[in-house]
Amino acid sequence: MRFGPVVALCLLTASADGFAAQADSGAYPSRPVRMIAPSSAGGPADVIARAVSPGIAEVLGQQIVVDNRAGAAGLIGAELVAAAAPDGYTMLFGFSGPLVIVPHLAEKLPYHTLRDFAPVSLAAQGPYVLLVNPGVQASSVRELVALAKAQPGKLNYASGGNGTGIHLTAELFKLTAGVNIVHVPYKGAGPGQTALLANEVSMMFNGLPPALPHVKTGRLKALAIAGEKRSPLLPEMPTLTEAGTAVVATGWYGILAPRATPRSIVSRMQMATAKACASPDVRDRLASQGVEIVGSTPEEFATWLREEWNKWQKVIHTAGIKSAQ
User: Fold this and answer.
1) Cα 162 from Cα 66, distance rounded (Å)
2) Cα 27 to Cα 69, 206, 225, 283, 301, distances in angstroms
3) What is the distance between the alpha carbons of residues 108 and 115, in angstroms, rounded to a whole number?
4) Which of 95, 165, 173, 162 lies closest to 130, judged by CA?
5) What is the Cα Rg of the chain in Å?
6) Phi, psi of 55 (to 5 degrees)
7) pLDDT at residue 11 above 50?
8) Which structural domains are found in the chain, ordered by start?
9) pTM of structure
């Protein structure tokens, strides 16, 4: 799903006149808003939430307090927001794991993503990159696929743990390319990339920012970007679709409210998010880390969630992935 037109629409609706009209429409917010980031400090969700929040606070005229609630693959923070009062003062800065992946792996969850949240805005997304150790005799996706087919079960790939976005992206790659590559889960993407650097594993998908320094020094080979378009940080790098394996997967981050939050509050928070996303400072700062600002409408984010939910449900079912390794 492309968001170019959506961004343009959001920025148009986030004009000064639009915000003036919204400012007159009610008293919300009259006190600070808590933004739950269901991850540890310093992780992508935390970094992006803290980059966008000051702009939102400026528009709303109230402080946005980013509150890290890590644990249980993001489920603790997501559950907290799902159960919160729908008054606009507790929001979720969510991502794929606790919203569209883990729900298909857990036997029982205290919330349902598509029923218990009100989507506000998809704030940002960043493509994963396909990495291989330099010792792997493949310099393109086609060569990697050919090598994997010639040696089924010999190549292996690292992930940040079972059910993480980079794990599911690798499984989608396996299904699409029709190859047999063995999963080796680690306790986080960082340890997984360290294992790849040490040639303990053959390949992995990872976010672009932590991989880029090693790609530039030649310690890792980047074969393709898993986004809809090429990354400006590696403009010569083809997308997986261009390289012959039609896989599109990104790490994404969006704002959600409890289900029964009034539409007027959702709209006001979306307008503030769009304004924050329009800031050149925020856009440039995150672009330098391989993250694209979006700032979608609630309707577009709801559609995005349904599409992601269905995509990863199918991958998990087809690949036979279980909740534990």
Assistant:
1) 27
2) 28, 43, 44, 29, 25
3) 15
4) 173
5) 20
6) -65, -40
7) no
8) 4-126+251-319 (3.40.190.150), 127-225 (3.40.190.10)
9) 0.85
